[in-house]
Design goal:
The protein is about 30% helix and about 15% strand. By secondary structure, it is an alpha/beta fold. A nine-stranded mixed sheet has the order 3-2-4-7-1-8-11-10-9, sandwiched between helices.
């Protein structure tokens, strides 16, 4: 079953807070949900499908349905694929709607990592012994020497440099582009425009990644409303169609198939493009998960916007800057400058894509004639074990 034209994103909301010391995680979920519902012109009583991931506290979806008073839910999905979860959820919501399982799907993300709030994967599994983690089974082996997300992404960057001659200056252009966009976003965590020199002169975090190659960490969240075509026609909002979706895991298979130079986007992207009936050359705007600058570089290559190994030259030519380049990206400032709630930011990628397709992005970064956009996310550890998800969205005239 194809999901093309079977579902519409009719509500989108990004929480304005980036620092929420006095707001609980459930409250952030609730405020995001109400914001997206108001944007769509619906109420919580219209919701019959709910989607969340590991950032939802307690028993996840069950706890949040209870907390938010969602009395009419008949379809629940708590798929967890890290930062790509919420892009997966857009595809899953479209599938559920196409199959008649629900008509109004609510997707929420929220967290407070700046204030020790619930972090994804931190919940204890039901019945687990105190002191035992319910994290991934390989963590005890891989992290024994102090491994971290920064280290694994640093290794990807170093390998990419070795294989293709990519430079730190080229990676820095991704941060530069994000900062040019963030300056116009009143809610962005970092609004100062930076230069290539600023990035490469910032302190080293995990060679070759510098401080400004890394995303921000913020409190906050976001929510989306995905509806059936029948519901969409009753709402007085611009219509954004889901026309293609793809998802793919990538694993090193216990170290037997380890290649740090590519991601699961090499599979999720083509699947989404094929279902949508479009090519990368047709895309007017791209929201790409930007946990680190190397993340963006690899996704641009793997999604087919340029050939493998040519990403460094592509970004250093200014192609990511709105109004200048071929592929405007993350016009809200992205995770590098704007918002990266709960240490994962996939939902904000869809939110900004919706803004662009509606013509509601900031006038300084709004892409002209933006009728086709992509939102793409990765979750887990780039290059090794992670999940990739891609959705293609289209503005309905």
């Amino acid at each position: 079953m194809s999901i093309k034209d079977k579902a519409y994103i009719m509500g989108a909301f990004e929480h304005p807070l980036r620092d929420a010391p006095d707001t609980s995680t459930p409250q952030l979920h609730m405020e995001c949900a109400l914001g997206a519902l108001a944007d769509a012109g619906l109420s919580k009583h219209d919701v019959d499908g709910y989607f969340c991931a590991g950032d939802a506290p307690g028993f996840g979806g069950l706890s949040m349905i209870d907390y938010m008073g969602l009395k009419n839910v008949r379809h629940l999905d708590s798929t967890e694929t890290g930062g790509s979860s919420y892009i997966v959820h857009v595809g899953h919501a479209a599938q559920a709607i196409a199959a008649g399982k629900c008509q109004v799907a609510l997707i929420t993300l929220a967290g407070r990592p700046r204030h020790g709030g619930n972090r994804p994967g931190a919940r204890m599994a039901a019945g687990a012994s105190p002191g035992l983690s319910d994290g991934p089974p390989e963590a005890g082996f891989e992290n024994i020497y102090g491994g971290s997300t920064h280290n694994t992404y640093g290794m990807c960057a170093m390998r990419h440099m070795y294989e293709y001659g990519t430079t730190s200056e080229q990676l820095a252009w991704i941060k530069v582009a994000a900062s040019h966009h963030a300056q116009w976003n009143e809610h962005a965590f970092l609004r100062d425009v930076v230069t290539v020199e600023d990035v490469v002169n910032s302190r080293m975090i995990s060679d070759p990644l510098h401080l400004l190659d890394c995303c921000v960490v913020t409190d906050g969240g976001g929510a989306l409303i995905v509806t059936s075509p029948e519901i969409a026609r009753t709402l007085k909002r611009p219509k954004v169609k889901v026309i293609g979706a793809g998802e793919a895991p990538k694993s090193p298979l216990g170290g037997q198939d380890l290649d740090l130079t590519y991601s699961g986007a090499v599979w999720s992207g083509p699947r989404a493009f094929e279902e949508a009936g479009v090519t990368p050359a047709d895309i007017k705007y791209a929201s790409i998960y930007d946990s680190f600058t190397i993340t963006v570089l690899m996704q641009i290559e793997d999604l087919g916007f340029c050939k493998k190994g040519e990403g460094g030259r592509f970004v250093s030519d200014g192609n990511l800057i709105s109004g200048v380049g071929k592929l405007p990206f993350n016009t809200d400032g992205g995770g590098l400058c704007n918002n990266h709630p709960t240490n994962r930011g996939g939902i904000t990628k869809v939110i900004e894509a919706v803004r662009q397709l509606r013509g509601e992005a900031h006038p300084k970064v709004q892409v002209k004639n933006c009728d086709l956009a992509i939102a793409h996310g990765t979750g887990g550890s780039l290059g090794t074990r992670h999940g990739s998800a891609t959705v293609v969205l289209e503005r309905e005239a």
